Amino acid sequence: MTGNTPAFDSASFDSAILRETLGCFPTGVVVAATRGDNNAPVGLTINSFTSVSLDPPLILWSIALSAPSLSAFREHPAFTINILSKEQQSLCMQFAKPSDNKFKGVDWRPGYQEAPIISDALAVLQCKTYRRYEGGDHEIFVGEVIKMDFTDKKPLVFHRGQFVELADEKI
Description:
By secondary structure, the protein is mainly beta. It has helices spanning 15-22, 70-75, 89-96; strands at 27-28, 30-35, 41-46, 49-54, 57-64, 78-83, 108-110, 116-118, 123-135, 138-150, 157-159, 162-164. The protein has one domain (28-158): Pnp Oxidase, Chain A (Roll), CATH 2.30.110.10. It is built from three helices and twelve strands. The strands form three sheets. The chain has a seven-stranded antiparallel β-sheet. The two termini are 26 Å apart.
């Protein structure tokens, strides 16, 4: 390993060091959304999102077992993955904070199985829940993509605890 950071093994690190190490990987920012009690829209900011398979078209993401919205995602058969554009940083923060109504003031429309689609997102994947798995202190959701669309906007990117911009240089 290079630099001034010591190497850690599982006996010598805690969750703070693991979080700092994982923060070295830049991620896009996503709002996962579904319907909850009384058909109310429910959502949260996540960065634990990735593709799984092209055939069938599968994606995955995870949610903390302590998340208030976990039961809504478990009970509703569908969800959306709203990949945020760099102009949607305030939405990221709104969905990251505890609130009884995270959709207050948010422009959205119903998608597949009424799951919320956030307007002006960089991309949206409408999914039906394919599988759920235990994953430590999280539950892993695998979704089958039913519908999708995307734009050419720039993504909202998170790295080492802050928002960053991608370079325009092409490789």
